[in-house]
Amino acid sequence: MLRWIDVLTYAKYGNPEPLRRVVLSEAEWRYRLPLVCYEVMRNRSTEPPYRNAYCRSYEPGRYHCAGCGSLLFDSATKYHAISGWPSFTQPAARSAIRYAFDDSHHMQRMEAVCNVCEGHLGHVFPDGPAPAGLRYCINSVSLEQR
């Protein structure tokens, strides 16, 4: 189980190596991803709160990266955080997510990125439920439920 100290350690000293990497040119990403997905995943934009596909969806399944198909989260770790975006307590594996300090928009946050294709997913915060206390606040367009 990951804790906030683990997230901070990964962001500061290095993230776990993924099993594979997907590296495409920006032109290839533009061709592969729908525009709204491209803006979020490659330009680090954010989709509108509460009006997204997985905000209020709690069907069983697994959530994969919309960019490369890597498994990111399981629905068993999804919960109602009232944040406007789908929220999870844990990634599917320690190496699924890459963490980076993000001080954009005059805030200090921890960015969550797909560790395989480096697509922006959202952010992780230390205000989630026990026992780990993590809240992964993820853009729906960055995910595909299967």
CATH hierarchy, class: Mainly Beta
- Biggest β-sheet description: 6 strands, antiparallel
The CATH topology is: Metal Binding Protein, Guanine Nucleotide Exchange Factor, Chain A
Global outline: globular
* Helix-strand string: HHHEEEEEEEEE
Number of helices: 3
Largest beta sheet: strand ordering: 3-4-8-7-6-5
Number of domains: 1
Strand count: 9
Strand percentage lies at 25-35%
How does the helix and strand content classify structurally? alpha+beta
Percent of residues in helices comes to 10-25%
CATH superfamily: Peptide methionine sulfoxide reductase
How would you describe this structure to a colleague?
This protein is α+β, with helices and mostly antiparallel strands and 146 residues long. The chain has one domain: Metal Binding Protein, Guanine Nucleotide Exchange Factor, Chain A (Beta Complex). The chain is 18% helix and 25% strand. It has 3 helices and 9 strands. The strands form 2 sheets. Strands 3-4-8-7-6-5 form a 6-stranded antiparallel sheet. Strands 2-1-9 form a 3-stranded antiparallel sheet, with no helix packed on it. It is globular and about 40 Å long. The model has no long low-confidence stretch (mean pLDDT 96).
